[in-house]
TrEMBL record, chain A:
The chain crosses the membrane at residues 20-39, 75-101, 113-138, 144-167, 188-213, 248-267. It comes from the Bacteria. It is found in: Cell membrane. The lineage of its organism: Bacteria, Pseudomonadati, Pseudomonadota, Gammaproteobacteria, Oceanospirillales. This is Carbohydrate ABC transporter permease. Belongs to the binding-protein-dependent transport system permease family. Its main location: membrane. InterPro entries: MetI-like, MetI-like_sf. It comes from Natronospirillum operosum. GO terms for cellular component: plasma membrane.
UniProtKB/TrEMBL annotation, chain B:
GO terms for biological process: transmembrane transport. The keyword Transmembrane applies. The chain crosses the membrane at residues 12-33, 80-101, 113-132, 164-188, 208-233, 276-298. Belongs to the binding-protein-dependent transport system permease family. Pfam families: BPD_transp_1 (PF00528). This is Sugar ABC transporter permease. It comes from Natronospirillum operosum. GO terms for cellular component: plasma membrane. Residues 74-297 form the ABC transmembrane type-1 domain. Keywords: Cell membrane, Membrane, Transmembrane, Transmembrane helix, Transport. Gene3D superfamilies: MetI-like. InterPro entries: MetI-like, MetI-like_sf, UgpAE/MalFG_permease. It is found in: Cell membrane.
Length: 281, 308
């Protein structure tokens, strides 16, 4: 991989790096701009938007006001719960279903795979009218459980689809050897199939987690109450209310972006490892 | 029944498939079907619904008030999608092709950083770009002035003629990471022997890309296109965050997602209607279904001929 391709001549290499560098700057500029300005005084935000905070322009007043005016810690907690619980359930249930679809021949296998795959292409949002009626019927409006159930259902189809491909690649020798030794199907799944598909699980985790963490639609409709607000809804409401207070707005956006940025520092490696493991084999 | 003959009781099947199938059915598949059913009903007083046939759809497509709003949202949504198709996918392909060049230094860094905005929330991205493009703050105006293009600046998000395009480009900026990653993963799966053989024969990177790699990644390009289609015809957050549920100015950024939200939930003077909302959702369902069918039966079938 690290061998220099004789084809990549210096000129080409320079052009390639210029394009990629320019695009990288374009991708990062808006985020960096908001983060650095969130630490500056109102005057500095407007006079010198592109400057880094200096000792004279540095301030945390935006953050202080957020803490006074709204409950960001609670929003983070809510977002965390409605992301992590569905993530765990999706990974577990999807891996199990994928194993069943990949490993066992049974009547209706293909039909079941197709049924579960419909949810990849048809967004769960289109069923919102009925979902709300079900949630009302279960008396779960303005609860985190409502979001957990819907997000688990939302994440399953794609996760099952991806994992089925990987489950098919579990070497037959290993499974047959385990069966000869008298291992149960459950044991083969948990002790052979799951560990072998771990790189794929990391990829699936990212694909599952991101849309859930970032969702505004279902919190807005199923759980808009103050005590169940997720970070997206909290920020949206906060900015609507204090749109003229630039310090607070910039600080709120920075706070909202931070968890994703920090998580990405860990998960980007996982994601890339998963992708290359699937590609290079 | 036959399954039982093969294996006494398929307990393991129930165990492995059960949880996923139950949750998926209750909270995804069934609500979708039920929404289609609800679209055939209309409200007759509080809590009462009567069968209305295709009445809601007739209203949606022929009533002057409803149909104008519906076609406007559909047309805006189509433009939103076309901008993605023509801007996001070519940029994603270009970046993926460059990053997958063998021996490129910093490839991992580029890939990681360019993918970053994709992971962030649409709501936050919407607000961030709203600030950056705001004439009040003047950041984009200042940047344009710095390169002598200051006269080009205007309040793009505020004008009817440019708001939708601007929002679509913001969305492209954010989601270019998806075609990038999928195409990249597909490009590095192209067998090394093929590339090496071409290199030995003196083919340029340019030819290697178009004549060897590109045909092999066409199925992925098709997949990216349908994912973009579904994502776009289901979009809501960006418009809602930046422009509110009315898709202003003057409904010029109203897309099906915001139209669905207003119809179902109501907004300002408009009273929400679950059955009318279900009809709008059903229209979105049929549009997305058409796109998926075209993908499955036309694009994918044709592309599979290229498969080895």
């Amino acid at each position: 991989m690290s061998i220099q391709n004789p084809n990549l001549r210096p000129l080409n290499s320079l052009a390639t790096h210029s394009v990629l560098l320019a695009y990288t700057l374009l991708a990062l500029f808006p985020i960096v701009l908001v983060v650095i300005n969130s630490f500056k005084s109102r005057q500095a935000i407007f006079n010198e938007p592109l400057a880094w905070p200096t000792p004279s322009s540095f301030t945390l007043e935006g953050y202080v006001r957020i803490l006074e005016r709204s409950d960001f810690a609670l929003y983070f907690y809510n977002s965390f719960v409605v992301t992590i619980v569905p993530l765990f359930l999706v990974m577990l249930f999807a891996a199990m279903a994928a194993w069943a679809l990949a490993e066992y021949r049974f009547r209706g296998n293909r039909l079941m795979a197709l049924y579960l795959a419909i949810g990849i292409m048809i967004p769960i949002r289109l069923g919102t009218v009925s979902i709300l009626e079900i949630i009302v019927g279960l008396n779960l409006v303005n609860t985190l459980l409502a979001l957990i159930l819907v997000y688990t259902a939302q994440g399953l189809p794609l996760a099952i689809f991806i994992l089925t491909e990987y489950m098919r690649q579990v070497p037959r020798d290993l499974k047959e050897a385990a069966r000869c030794d008298g291992a149960s199907e459950y044991r083969i799944f948990f002790q052979i199939a799951v560990p072998l598909t771990r790189p794929a699980l990391a990829t699936v985790a990212v694909f599952t987690m991101v849309p859930i963490w970032n969702d505004l639609w279902f919190p807005l409709i199923l759980a808009p109450a103050e005590h169940t607000r997720t970070i997206q809804l909290g920020v949206q409401q906060f900015i609507g209310q204090y749109s003229t207070d630039w310090n607070s707005v910039l600080s709120a956006l920075t706070l909202a972006v931070m968890p994703a940025l920090i998580l990405y520092m860990f998960f980007s490696r996982q994601l890339i490892r998963g992708l290359t493991a699937g590609a290079v084999k | 029944m036959r399954a039982i003959r093969l294996r006494p009781v398929p307990w393991h099947l129930l165990f492995f498939l059960g949880p996923a199938v139950v949750i998926y059915t209750l909270f995804s598949a069934w609500p979708l079907l039920d929404t289609l059913r609800l679209s055939l009903y209309t409200s007759a007083g509080p809590g009462q619904r009567v069968f209305h046939g295709l009445g809601n759809f007739v209203t949606l497509l022929t009533d002057p008030h409803w149909s104008a709003a519906f076609w406007n949202a559909l047309w805006n949504n189509t433009k939103f999608f076309l901008i993605h198709l023509l801007v996001q996918n070519p940029i994603g392909l270009l970046l993926a092709a460059l990053i997958s060049l063998p021996g490129l230094r910093l490839a991992r860094t580029y890939r990681t950083l360019i993918f970053l905005p994709t992971l962030l929330s649409v709501v936050i991205i919407g607000f961030i770009w709203q600030l950056i493009l705001s004439p009040l703050w003047g950041v984009s105006e200042g940047l344009l002035e710095a390169v002598g293009l200051g006269h080009l600046f205007s309040a793009w998000l505020g004008r009817e003629s440019t708001a939708l395009i601007t929002l679509a480009l913001i969305s492209v900026w954010q989601f270019v990471g998806i075609p990038l990653m999928l195409l990249y993963a597909s490009l590095i799966q192209v067998p090394d022997e093929l590339i090496e053989a071409a290199v030995v024969e003196g083919a340029s990177s340019w030819r290697i890309f178009w004549q060897i790699k590109f045909p092999l990644i066409l199925p992925t390009l098709g997949l990216v296109t349908i994912l973009t289609f579904v994502g776009n015809f289901n979009a809501f957050e960006l418009i809602y965050a930046v422009k509110g549920a009315l898709g202003g100015p003057n409904f010029s950024t109203d897309i099906l997602g915001t139209f669905f939200y207003r119809t179902f939930f109501g907004y300002q003077s408009q009273v929400g209607s679950p059955t009318m909302g279900a009809a709008v959702a059903s229209m979105m369902f049929f549009i997305i279904l058409c796109g998926v069918m075209v993908y499955l039966y036309v694009i994918q079938r044709r592309l599979h001929r290229y498969d080895v």
